[in-house]
Amino acid sequence: MDETGAAGPAAFDLAALVAARESERYSLHAGHLNEMMVRMLQTIGYDVGFREGRGQYLFDRDGARYLDCLSGWGVFGVGRNHPTLRAALRQVLDTDMANLVQMDVSVLAGLLAEKLLGNAPYLDKVFFANSGAEAVEAAVKFARSATGRPGILCCDHAFHGLTYGALSLNGDAIFRDGFGPLLPSCGTVPFDDLAALERALARRDVAAFIVEPIQGKGVHVPSDDYLREAAALCRRHGTLFVADEIQTGLGRTGRFLASEHWGVEPDMVLLAKALSGGHVPVGAVLARKGIFEKVFNRMDRAVVHGSTFAKNDLAMAAGLATLHVIEAEKLVENAARFGERLIAAFTAMRDRFELVKDVRGRGLMIGLEFGAPRSLKLRAAWSLLETVNAGLFCQLVTIPLFKEHKVVAQVAGHRSHVVKLLPSLVITDADCDWIERSFEAVIAESHRVPGAVWDLGRTLADHAMKARRAAG
């Protein structure tokens, strides 16, 4: 009540609202959002209702603890709900900052740009966006403006986002189909193929070559000389070399930028995902000064490209706090150390289990590739699944990992035979024990025919066939 005794407006109690409607989690989404997502979760048994996240762990509606090796597709590099991030965001809210004045500039944005460029001293300027896809869109515009050329080149199997410009650079047809026509003058070359890249650049109409230093779809690691020679080819042909570090950056691969593994200095570096700290989305384009000077070349073009919410104080504070945590907790070094341990453990599994064909990655970006076995019984079971749906076998790994061992992992792309791990950089030796023990058990079980894993395979194959018939 106010001073006169009259009833004031009812308080907004978010926690009470969530608690009251929690039981409707999946029906709300099926009714008002993406029903197919709900059906998929229910089919594979992932509808456990996660209610809490702390660091590298998730907790479901029953309080069971899971080790998250997906980390929001790499968003939670510093783990979920890090206290330093939470404190920084509270400070922004508690200090009544003059946020998004627009006809002014932000101190927090300047500080975050300064900090990012300190990790890439060969670059000079930063443009902030709201996401990785927006960073890609900005890079496309900047490259065309700076070079006067239309062409944008990417690699087969690339993933750079799902907005129209970024989608035009997507190397997987399942994401593109049904959405054309896409952005003109975009082309692809095979990843790790310098001869193909040189042929494409020789046309002298390519503004930028945008490449993931390690491809997220399938965790494809380039040959030792590829990125360095690709950058040299771009310089020779007047093309900008753009490193999409949206997933690989900020310590993920055991270096602050994955490009550092090969001594490459791109003309632009794209960041997002982990820079948010898992709280407020933020993307960034780090670029050479000459590129910015071509885009923002007069006062009347000072706002020729921008984004309304891009430099908001919460996002900038989240980025600053994230960089502080990465440095203070030595998370780059942590990723390198535990990545080396896990890759060695998985390599030993490859040598013992015929279904494991390859192990690759850097730091805590790791892919296990499965393939056709040699033994007769396993080969017959494998062929049956492949006939129904290529790549289905990987679900026989990720589902038992989830249900029986409480490990959240992902298949590394549509029709892929690769299971991918992107755990938070804060994992421990005990977490590595958990990962190794769980993968060992599931992979060993998958080599028993008949067995529980292949029973699951028949169930999934039946679901796939029914879905195919329903779709006509």
From TrEMBL:
Transmembrane segments: none annotated. It comes from the Bacteria. Keywords: Amino-acid biosynthesis, Aminotransferase, Arginine biosynthesis, Pyridoxal phosphate, Transferase. SUPFAM superfamilies: PLP-dependent transferases (SSF53383). One of its GO terms (molecular function) is transaminase activity. The keyword Chloroplast does not apply. Its cofactor is pyridoxal 5'-phosphate. One of its GO terms (biological process) is L-arginine biosynthetic process. Belongs to the class-III pyridoxal-phosphate-dependent aminotransferase family. This is Aspartate aminotransferase family protein.
